[in-house]
Design goal:
The protein is an alpha+beta fold. It contains 13 helices and 10 strands. The model has no long low-confidence stretch (mean pLDDT 84). Bound molecules: zinc ion. Zinc ion (ZN) binds at residues 66, 70, 112, 160, 168. Zinc ion binds at residues 66, 70, 112, 160, 168.
Length: 377
């Protein structure tokens, strides 16, 4: 989930919105207008609209506080937090690495729902101080805003505590299993399985409500369930990978078989003699037997075709100094983290200035596939 609109930074964390967030903001404001005008027929439409918009904005602040609680606790435990992005189904904190231990994971997960719970209670107490009585309809615009915010935050806290990984409750469950079994892989696997069961329940309940109760909220629940199912499935797949390469080094997995081309070669010759002939996409560029850079199809397509004969490989390659590289003894999990963080497909493996191989997702997949075939029970 990448933010498309940047709002600024809080405590070094970049805060952003995904376009899909506007859908939910619009729906919430619309349903608030409907609700406020139904319970308070005496209000002018200007009052109803402003109360709805203010509530919508404060709801956004409350969501942000929930995510900030996760992020700030993660930071205090030494983890790096890159960004918080709000989207249609809430918010995500992009925390760069896994929690170091079960206890940290537990607190990072539970502090979000706790923040929502506190916000909810504070809003309802404030509403009481404006004369609102529990279980009655609010009479003034201010108490209407506070009551709605209070209840929605309590619901947010409760919903997030449902133990469907990767919802907060699922992460709490994972932390507790981790604590007891001392195995992070096993705990993630169990939590992801429970997450899939919860997701199916959401989808089933949502569709049931939609078709039998003619309730559009049901469709929303089913949509959340579908999203959760996808997320828990990919967490499960992720465990298979991290478990398979835990304790492995880059040198155990990397592809040692790569092709080199001379720096002075023209793009014309490069394309016809190497690129097309081999079917490979990435070549190492060497100059006086030293690694100078990399060239892929992408660099070639950046040059117009009639200039290929006069353009050298050297002039368009990505030079070594601009490449992110890893060493043979870098842990494989670290290398995977670097690739997903920097959104790159392969890492050159360099030892004493010499290229010794390439680490890529496909080399990891190949490693896991062969291992599974050779050592299956
Ligand atoms: Zn949360």
């Amino acid at each position: 989930m990448h933010a498309q609109i940047r709002l600024g930074r809080i405590a070094g964390i970049s805060i952003g919105l995904h376009y899909s967030w506007f859908i939910i903001a619009f729906l919430i404001t619309l349903s608030l207008i409907g609700r406020f005008s139904a319970v308070t027929p005496k209000w002018s439409s200007a009052t109803v609209w402003s109360a709805a918009i203010v509530t919508g904005l404060l709801f956004f602040v409350a969501l942000l506080l929930h995510e900030l609680a996760h992020s700030l606790l993660a930071k205090s435990r030494g983890l790096r937090v890159r960004a918080i992005t709000l989207f249609a189904l809430g918010g995500v904190s992009q925390i760069e690495s896994e929690a170091p231990d079960a206890k940290s994971e537990f607190w990072i997960a539970i502090v979000g729902p706790l923040a929502s719970l506190v916000i909810g209670i504070v809003c309802l107490l404030l509403a009481r101080s404006t004369g609102w009585i529990l279980n009655s309809e609010p009479r003034t615009p201010i108490s209407a805003v506070l009551v709605w915010l209070g209840y929605i935050n309590l619901m947010l806290a409760a919903f997030n505590l449902v133990p469907g990984y990767p919802l907060d409750g699922g992460r709490v469950l994972r932390a507790l299993i981790w604590w007891n079994t001392h195995s992070i892989d096993r705990s993630t696997r169990i939590a992801a399985r429970v997450g899939q069961v919860v997701a199916f329940l959401f989808i089933f309940l949502g569709l049931y409500q939609f078709f039998l109760g003619k309730n559009f909220g049901g469709l929303w629940l089913a949509f959340i369930g579908w999203f959760l199912l996808d997320a828990s499935r990919s967490s499960y797949a992720q465990v298979e990978i991290t478990e398979g390469i835990r304790d492995r080094r880059v040198s155990d997995i990397m592809d040692r078989d790569f092709s080199a081309v001379e720096a002075h070669l023209s793009l014309q010759d490069f394309v016809h003699r190497y690129l097309l002939a081999s079917g490979r996409r990435c070549f190492v560029v060497v100059q006086n037997n030293n690694l100078a850079g990399l060239i892929t199809t992408k660099e070639v397509t950046g040059v117009e075709r009639d200039r290929w004969p006069q353009t050298s490989v050297q002039s368009v390659m990505r030079p070594l100094s601009q490449l992110r590289t890893v060493m043979p003894d870098t842990p494989a999990i670290r290398a995977l983290e670097i690739m997903s963080r920097e959104d790159i497909n392969q890492l050159p493996v360099v030892s004493d200035g010499q290229l010794v191989g390439f680490f890529s997702r496909s080399s990891v997949m190949g490693f896991l596939r062969n291992r599974a075939e050779l050592f299956k029970q």
